[in-house]
């Protein structure tokens, strides 16, 4: 009976034809403006509100690394590269460090890839330490605050903890020299050692042109109720099971692999992006880390994200009303996912789709090149601008030190 009821609801939802792409948005009456301050914040222009000085580092910290492996331009950690390029040509950049509000050190710490394209974080701590030693020796600005007016882009799985396995990341903790800096990172989880207070959580990189190439007609019916493609188990790294995704993905498969409302599989078809545009709900479960590009893809393609990651801190959460556009399901409630989703009234689903069709929502999740107003680059700058002015307490007294340069694993202290 439940399936037949939802077959009817799918027809009703599809009849409204809510669209998907930032370039092919439906007519204005099919979108809905975000209520309150969130919508205004998304459309803020950071120009004139802050000035950023970019340290000119030797190319071995960024450009030469990229020259060795161009795959770094397309993987989900590429925000560090595009943020560097953006700031270099942005009107917020200043060449006079004396008038800067923020100092930016462009280090490509994720551009060390395995043959399979996965980033190896093992050199990252030494690389970051080396860059900080360089700027602290050649400019006076780091030493004034020990990094409290500096920001770093650290898009690793667990940010500046620099490891892809949570247990190891927690054991390492955030690189000690970054304890006073503002971290711009994809990882976000409340009450976690790898997310320090004041960090700016950003979306992972998803290639805008690639997604644009797969847009289909906004009139296409959303005939799939729940959609997911990806791993349910990671046998290679978690042979006993239960550790990967804290068992949440395994629970999805075990409970719903035969449910006709769920289109779920490990296969990644060539129609993946098109299928998301035909779906009402897209599952966004945690994997090794709580975040993934699925969140970006779901928003861009107008598929309501079903977020399964306890305590996750979502991108630009002070500007994007995630509670209004998504559905949050506790990891322990995954076995009841069908009941939870089929219990959502159609009018609530339609409102979430209208909000997702808002161009400012989609733009905020993308790192386009060239940059566009309201995109993720601008949201990062807005986040930095909202932290201004800096308090006087960030400046150290003459001779005062708070960071321990010899703290951390012995391997991190070796020269890079």
What would the keywords be for this entry?
416 residues, Rossmann fold, five-stranded parallel beta sheet, globular, 10% strand, 2 domains, alpha/beta, 16 helices
Could you walk me through the main structural features you see in this protein, from its secondary elements to its overall organization?
The chain is of the alpha/beta class and 416 residues long. It folds into two domains: 2-30 and 208-363, Rossmann fold (3-Layer(aba) Sandwich), CATH 3.40.50; 42-205 and 370-405, no CATH class. It has helices spanning 2-16, 37-42, 63-68, 79-88, 124-138, 141-145, 166-172, 208-212, 248-256, 272-277, 294-300, 322-325, 337-342, 346-356, 359-363, 376-385, and strands at residues 52-54, 102-104, 150-153, 182-185, 200-201, 224-229, 262-265, 279-285, 304-308, 327-328. It has a five-stranded parallel sheet with strand order 1-2-3-4-5. A five-stranded parallel sheet has the order 7-6-8-9-10. Helix 11 (294-300) links the parallel strand 8 and strand 9 (304-308). The radius of gyration is 22 Å and the shape is globular. Residues 15-29 and 34-39 have low confidence and may be disordered.
């Amino acid at each position: 009976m439940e399936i037949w009821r939802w077959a009817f609801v799918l027809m009703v939802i599809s009849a409204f034809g809510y669209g998907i792409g930032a370039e092919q948005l439906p007519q204005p009456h099919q979108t809905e403006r975000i209520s309150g301050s969130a919508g205004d914040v998304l459309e803020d222009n950071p120009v004139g509100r802050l000035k950023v000085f970019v340290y000119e580092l030797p190319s071995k910290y960024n450009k030469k690394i990229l020259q060795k492996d161009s795959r770094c331009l397309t993987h989900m950690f590429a925000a560090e590269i595009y943020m560097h390029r953006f700031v270099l040509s942005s009107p917020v950049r200043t060449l006079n460090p004396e008038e800067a509000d923020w100092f930016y050190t462009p280090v490509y710490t994720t551009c060390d890839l395995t043959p399979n394209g996965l980033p190896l974080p093992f050199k990252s701590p030494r690389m970051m330490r080396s860059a900080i030693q360089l700027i602290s020796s050649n400019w006076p600005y780091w030493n004034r605050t020990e990094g409290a007016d500096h920001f770093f882009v650290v898009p690793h799985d667990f940010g500046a903890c620099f490891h892809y396995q949570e247990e190891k990341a927690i054991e390492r903790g955030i690189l000690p020299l970054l304890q006073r800096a503002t971290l711009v990172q994809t990882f976000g989880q409340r009450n976690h050692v790898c997310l320090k207070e004041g960090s700016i959580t950003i979306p992972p990189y998803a290639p805008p042109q690639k997604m644009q190439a797969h847009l289909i007609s906004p009139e296409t019916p959303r005939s799939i109720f729940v959609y997911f493609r990806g791993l349910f188990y990671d046998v290679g790294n978690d042979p006993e099971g239960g550790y990967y995704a804290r068992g949440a993905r395994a629970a999805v498969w075990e409970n719903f692999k035969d449910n006709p409302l769920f289109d779920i599989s490990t296969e990644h078809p060539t129609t993946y992006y098109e299928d998301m545009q035909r779906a009402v709900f897209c599952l966004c479960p945690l994997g090794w880390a709580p975040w993934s590009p699925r969140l970006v893809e779901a928003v861009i393609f107008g598929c309501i994200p079903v977020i399964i990651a306890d305590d996750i801190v979502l991108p630009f959460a002070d500007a994007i009303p995630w509670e209004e556009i998504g559905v949050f399901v506790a990891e322990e409630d995954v076995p009841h996912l069908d009941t939870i989703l089929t219990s959502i009234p159609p009018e609530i689903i339609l409102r979430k789709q209208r909000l997702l069709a808002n161009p400012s929502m989609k733009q905020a999740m993308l790192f386009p090149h060239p940059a566009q107003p309201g995109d993720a680059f601008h949201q990062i700058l807005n986040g930095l601008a909202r932290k201004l002015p800096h308090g006087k307490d960030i400046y150290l007294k003459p001779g005062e030190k708070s960071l321990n340069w010899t703290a951390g694993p012995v391997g991190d202290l070796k020269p890079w």
